[in-house]
Amino acid sequence: MKNFYRKVAFGLKPEEKAPSDPLTWAQKQVETIPELNWKGKYIYSEKEMRKYWITQRVEENTTLRKKYKNDPQGLKRKEMYEGRDLNATIDARSVYASAMSTVFDLDFKRIQKDVFWGEDLQNLSDKLFKA
User: Fold this and answer.
1) Angstrom distance (rounded) from CA 29 to CA 2
2) How far is it, in rounded angstroms, from Cα 64 to Cα 58?
């Protein structure tokens, strides 16, 4: 597959052609951005959002730990996102790398090395994409 990584960067499907002039393509993408339809009073700053989500996470953990104080296995199951197979704090890059490896039929280690610069990622292909 020619120019695989370039196509991924452009968000193209494998059978689509990469644009001949990337700058023009990028400028046209910006022109087609839809209007912002936020109906809230104001948009929160990054600092406010971090504080909000950290507070939420701490409250959730505290509540879970109190509820499952004498049941470690119950706590372990509840820490999973909606009771699913992935922990809510798993590195999303591991999921992306595993998905790319499976969908494009490429070696996970190649994706890990070339796309994610050799980061220590978990291969979740077998857990997520069972045939």
Assistant:
1) 23
2) 10
Q: How confident is the model at residue 7, as a pLDDT?
A: 65
| DSSP string for 59-112 | HHHHHHHHHTTT-HHHHHHHHBGGG-SSBTTS-HHHHHHHHHHHHTT--HHHHH
Structure tokens of 78?
Answer: 């509840």
Amino acid identity of residue 121, one-letter, is L
Give the global pTM: 0.37
Burial tier of 96 (Cβ tally within 10 Å: 0-12, 13-18, 19+)? middle
- What sign does the CA torsion over 74, 76, 79, 80 have? negative
